[in-house]
Amino acid sequence: MCGRYTLAKSIKTIKKHFDPVAIKCEHSERHNIAPGQNTPVIMLQNNQRELRIMRWGLVPPWAKNIKTAKIIINARSETIHQTPTFRNFFQAQRCLVPADGFFEWKIEGKEKVPYYIFLKPKNIFAFAGIWAKWDKTPSSIYTYSILTTQANTTLASIHERMPVILEPASYKLWLASDTDSRTLHDLLSPFSSKKIGAYAISKEINSYKNDHSDLLSPLTFN
Prior knowledge:
- The chain has 222 residues and is mainly β.
- The protein has helices at residues 11-18, 84-92, 171-175, 181-186; strands spanning 5-7, 22-23, 30-33, 38-45, 48-56, 74-76, 94-99, 101-108, 111-119, 125-134, 141-150, 161-163, 165-166, 196-200.
- Strands 2, 4, 5, 6, 7, 10, 11, 12 and 13 form a nine-stranded mixed sheet that branches. The protein has a five-stranded antiparallel sheet with strand order 3-1-8-9-14, with no helix packed on it.
- It starts with a strand and ends in a 22-residue tail after the last strand.
Protein backbone atom coordinates (compact mmCIF):
# COMPACT_ATOMS: atom_id res chain seq x y z
CA MET A 1 0.00 0.00 0.00
CA CYS A 2 1.01 3.64 0.19
CA GLY A 3 0.06 5.57 3.30
CA ARG A 4 2.62 8.42 3.27
CA TYR A 5 4.95 9.92 0.68
CA THR A 6 7.25 12.87 -0.04
CA LEU A 7 7.46 15.63 -2.62
CA ALA A 8 10.41 17.78 -1.61
CA LYS A 9 11.18 18.99 -5.13
CA SER A 10 10.41 22.55 -6.27
CA ILE A 11 7.69 23.61 -8.70
CA LYS A 12 10.47 24.31 -11.20
CA THR A 13 11.73 20.73 -10.96
CA ILE A 14 8.20 19.33 -11.18
CA LYS A 15 7.49 21.37 -14.30
CA LYS A 16 10.76 20.32 -15.95
CA HIS A 17 10.10 16.62 -15.30
CA PHE A 18 6.47 16.56 -16.46
CA ASP A 19 6.65 19.22 -19.18
CA PRO A 20 4.52 20.15 -21.02
CA VAL A 21 2.34 20.97 -18.02
CA ALA A 22 0.38 24.08 -17.00
CA ILE A 23 1.04 25.04 -13.36
CA LYS A 24 -2.25 25.89 -11.62
CA CYS A 25 -1.08 25.78 -8.00
CA GLU A 26 1.69 26.59 -5.56
CA HIS A 27 3.83 24.02 -3.78
CA SER A 28 6.29 23.97 -0.90
CA GLU A 29 8.63 21.15 0.10
CA ARG A 30 6.79 18.24 1.72
CA HIS A 31 8.52 15.44 3.61
CA ASN A 32 5.54 13.63 5.12
CA ILE A 33 2.38 13.84 3.01
CA ALA A 34 -0.54 12.11 4.72
CA PRO A 35 -4.07 11.12 3.67
CA GLY A 36 -6.57 13.98 3.80
CA GLN A 37 -3.94 16.58 2.89
CA ASN A 38 -3.85 18.70 -0.28
CA THR A 39 -1.01 18.07 -2.74
CA PRO A 40 -0.16 18.69 -6.43
CA VAL A 41 -1.54 16.17 -8.92
CA ILE A 42 -1.40 16.14 -12.73
CA MET A 43 -4.59 15.59 -14.70
CA LEU A 44 -5.54 16.04 -18.35
CA GLN A 45 -7.83 18.99 -19.06
CA ASN A 46 -8.83 19.72 -22.66
CA ASN A 47 -5.98 17.44 -23.80
CA GLN A 48 -3.42 19.44 -21.81
CA ARG A 49 -1.53 18.45 -18.67
CA GLU A 50 -2.46 20.54 -15.66
CA LEU A 51 -0.85 20.55 -12.21
CA ARG A 52 -3.48 21.37 -9.61
CA ILE A 53 -4.15 20.78 -5.94
CA MET A 54 -6.18 17.71 -4.98
CA ARG A 55 -7.00 16.09 -1.65
CA TRP A 56 -5.49 12.66 -1.01
CA GLY A 57 -8.30 10.20 -0.38
CA LEU A 58 -10.75 9.68 -3.19
CA VAL A 59 -14.35 10.65 -2.45
CA PRO A 60 -16.80 9.46 -5.15
CA PRO A 61 -19.20 12.10 -6.51
CA TRP A 62 -22.21 10.21 -5.16
CA ALA A 63 -21.08 10.63 -1.54
CA LYS A 64 -23.63 12.75 0.35
CA ASN A 65 -21.22 14.42 2.77
CA ILE A 66 -17.52 14.84 2.06
CA LYS A 67 -16.72 15.37 5.76
CA THR A 68 -18.15 12.01 6.79
CA ALA A 69 -17.42 10.04 3.60
CA LYS A 70 -14.90 7.19 3.83
CA ILE A 71 -11.86 8.31 1.87
CA ILE A 72 -10.02 5.81 -0.33
CA ILE A 73 -6.28 6.44 -0.38
CA ASN A 74 -5.30 3.31 -2.38
CA ALA A 75 -6.89 1.20 -5.13
CA ARG A 76 -5.69 -2.29 -6.07
CA SER A 77 -4.50 -2.26 -9.69
CA GLU A 78 -5.32 -5.95 -10.20
CA THR A 79 -9.07 -5.43 -9.70
CA ILE A 80 -9.60 -1.73 -10.42
CA HIS A 81 -11.30 -2.44 -13.75
CA GLN A 82 -13.83 -4.72 -12.03
CA THR A 83 -14.68 -2.78 -8.87
CA PRO A 84 -17.80 -0.61 -9.33
CA THR A 85 -16.38 2.18 -7.14
CA PHE A 86 -13.23 2.54 -9.26
CA ARG A 87 -14.13 1.26 -12.73
CA ASN A 88 -15.30 4.55 -14.26
CA PHE A 89 -12.43 6.54 -12.77
CA PHE A 90 -9.94 4.03 -14.17
CA GLN A 91 -11.50 4.33 -17.61
CA ALA A 92 -11.75 8.10 -17.80
CA GLN A 93 -10.17 9.92 -14.84
CA ARG A 94 -6.54 8.90 -14.45
CA CYS A 95 -3.83 11.15 -13.05
CA LEU A 96 -0.14 11.35 -12.24
CA VAL A 97 0.84 11.87 -8.61
CA PRO A 98 4.28 13.54 -8.39
CA ALA A 99 6.55 12.18 -5.64
CA ASP A 100 10.20 11.65 -4.79
CA GLY A 101 9.81 8.93 -2.18
CA PHE A 102 7.36 7.06 0.03
CA PHE A 103 7.21 5.21 3.34
CA GLU A 104 6.35 1.71 4.42
CA TRP A 105 6.41 0.05 7.83
CA LYS A 106 8.13 -3.33 8.34
CA ILE A 107 7.02 -5.58 11.17
CA GLU A 108 10.08 -6.56 13.21
CA GLY A 109 9.08 -8.54 16.27
CA LYS A 110 6.54 -6.43 18.14
CA GLU A 111 7.57 -3.22 16.42
CA LYS A 112 6.78 -1.51 13.13
CA VAL A 113 9.92 0.07 11.71
CA PRO A 114 9.39 2.83 9.10
CA TYR A 115 11.40 2.70 5.88
CA TYR A 116 12.01 5.46 3.35
CA ILE A 117 11.78 4.17 -0.21
CA PHE A 118 13.05 6.04 -3.26
CA LEU A 119 14.29 5.73 -6.82
CA LYS A 120 18.05 5.57 -7.40
CA PRO A 121 19.16 8.34 -7.65
CA LYS A 122 16.60 10.28 -5.60
CA ASN A 123 14.80 11.77 -8.58
CA ILE A 124 11.19 12.84 -8.95
CA PHE A 125 8.73 10.28 -10.34
CA ALA A 126 4.98 9.64 -10.59
CA PHE A 127 2.53 7.24 -9.00
CA ALA A 128 -0.39 6.06 -11.12
CA GLY A 129 -3.56 7.60 -9.74
CA ILE A 130 -7.26 8.11 -10.33
CA TRP A 131 -9.24 11.24 -9.46
CA ALA A 132 -12.81 12.30 -8.75
CA LYS A 133 -14.68 15.60 -8.47
CA TRP A 134 -17.19 16.29 -5.69
CA ASP A 135 -19.64 19.01 -6.69
CA LYS A 136 -21.98 19.34 -3.73
CA THR A 137 -20.33 22.57 -2.54
CA PRO A 138 -20.08 26.02 -4.19
CA SER A 139 -16.55 25.15 -5.33
CA SER A 140 -15.65 21.69 -6.64
CA ILE A 141 -13.36 19.51 -4.54
CA TYR A 142 -10.93 17.23 -6.39
CA THR A 143 -9.70 14.07 -4.67
CA TYR A 144 -7.41 11.22 -5.72
CA SER A 145 -6.29 7.69 -4.92
CA ILE A 146 -2.94 5.98 -5.60
CA LEU A 147 -2.91 2.58 -7.32
CA THR A 148 -1.00 -0.27 -5.70
CA THR A 149 0.46 -3.54 -6.94
CA GLN A 150 2.47 -6.49 -5.66
CA ALA A 151 5.82 -5.50 -4.14
CA ASN A 152 8.98 -6.09 -6.17
CA THR A 153 11.78 -8.25 -4.79
CA THR A 154 13.54 -5.31 -3.14
CA LEU A 155 10.47 -4.29 -1.14
CA ALA A 156 8.86 -7.69 -0.52
CA SER A 157 10.74 -8.09 2.77
CA ILE A 158 9.28 -4.77 3.98
CA HIS A 159 5.70 -5.04 2.76
CA GLU A 160 3.75 -7.20 0.31
CA ARG A 161 2.31 -4.21 -1.60
CA MET A 162 3.79 -1.10 -3.20
CA PRO A 163 2.41 1.88 -5.12
CA VAL A 164 2.41 1.72 -8.92
CA ILE A 165 5.32 3.82 -10.20
CA LEU A 166 5.20 4.80 -13.86
CA GLU A 167 8.15 5.22 -16.19
CA PRO A 168 8.28 8.74 -17.75
CA ALA A 169 7.73 7.19 -21.18
CA SER A 170 4.35 5.93 -19.92
CA TYR A 171 2.97 9.25 -18.66
CA LYS A 172 1.30 10.14 -21.94
CA LEU A 173 -0.36 6.72 -22.27
CA TRP A 174 -1.61 6.78 -18.69
CA LEU A 175 -3.24 10.20 -19.06
CA ALA A 176 -4.63 9.79 -22.59
CA SER A 177 -8.37 9.16 -22.78
CA ASP A 178 -8.04 6.81 -25.76
CA THR A 179 -5.51 4.36 -24.28
CA ASP A 180 -6.99 0.86 -24.42
CA SER A 181 -7.55 -1.19 -21.26
CA ARG A 182 -4.94 -3.83 -22.08
CA THR A 183 -2.23 -1.20 -22.52
CA LEU A 184 -3.21 0.44 -19.23
CA HIS A 185 -2.95 -2.85 -17.35
CA ASP A 186 0.50 -3.46 -18.83
CA LEU A 187 1.64 -0.23 -17.12
CA LEU A 188 0.60 -1.43 -13.68
CA SER A 189 3.34 -3.98 -13.02
CA PRO A 190 5.79 -3.65 -10.08
CA PHE A 191 8.58 -1.14 -10.70
CA SER A 192 12.08 -2.50 -11.34
CA SER A 193 13.82 -3.71 -8.16
CA LYS A 194 17.17 -2.54 -9.51
CA LYS A 195 15.98 1.08 -9.52
CA ILE A 196 14.61 1.10 -5.95
CA GLY A 197 16.45 1.92 -2.72
CA ALA A 198 15.25 1.76 0.90
CA TYR A 199 16.53 2.32 4.43
CA ALA A 200 15.08 2.50 7.95
CA ILE A 201 14.24 5.92 9.41
CA SER A 202 13.08 7.39 12.72
CA LYS A 203 9.61 6.68 14.09
CA GLU A 204 9.14 10.44 14.18
CA ILE A 205 7.64 9.95 10.73
CA ASN A 206 4.65 8.23 12.36
CA SER A 207 3.08 11.58 13.25
CA TYR A 208 1.66 13.44 10.25
CA LYS A 209 2.38 16.67 12.17
CA ASN A 210 6.11 16.16 11.60
CA ASP A 211 7.27 17.45 8.22
CA HIS A 212 10.95 18.31 7.86
CA SER A 213 13.95 17.00 5.93
CA ASP A 214 15.59 15.30 8.95
CA LEU A 215 12.77 12.74 8.87
CA LEU A 216 14.44 11.21 5.82
CA SER A 217 17.82 10.61 7.49
CA PRO A 218 18.87 6.94 7.69
CA LEU A 219 18.36 5.37 11.10
CA THR A 220 21.64 4.80 12.90
CA PHE A 221 22.05 1.74 15.10
CA ASN A 222 24.32 1.77 18.16
